[in-house]
Amino acid sequence: RANVAVFISGTGSNMINLINQASNPSSHCTIRLVICNKPEAKGLERARERGIEAICIPHGDDRHVFENKIYQELIKRDIDFICLAGFMRILTGEFTQKWVNRIINIHPSLLPSFKGKDAVKLALEAGVKVTGCTAHFVSEEVDAGKIIAQEVVAVEDNDDEKTLHTKIQEKEHSMFPKVMEIVAKSIVFSI
Ligand code: GAR
Out of the domains of life, which is the source (predicted)? Predict the structure, then answer.
């Protein structure tokens, strides 16, 4: 099995779905660690309730110090790859270069449209009739790495940010675990 670390910043609904996937006996993943940059995030407790080690590393104001602390924790646990599941910090090139094709992210839009932290709001403001979610590899340029999978969601006239984000997250919850599994499989069979 591949050793996986999940990075979160919030409620961790995607993280829970990754944990569920890894609990499947036929999975190629072991979720070894959850890292969260926010001490008050609900996801930390939710991971612990599921028996997963979850630690908080506050981001502070120095990105290199922050990433160095993360790196040490990953190395200690022999992590093979990282899933960003609602992790709202930008990783430096120095960090992403250490994990080429070994970091995947879930983003709530059809990339390359609506990059950044307000993807759902930007899609509504643009008046698009379809949006969705994207799973992609993480590279130095934000939300621009190679796309692995996408799912489409129709935007209804009465949607607001909350209703639209809920619909997008339903798609994320089914898509991201499948993508994690595909990446894990490719790592396990290439070792
Ligand atoms: C997810 O919808 C994810 O796509 C989004 O944050 C949410 C986290 O929800 N990520 C981004 O916007 C990244 N730019 P969760 O904590 O319940 O999984």
Answer: Eukaryota
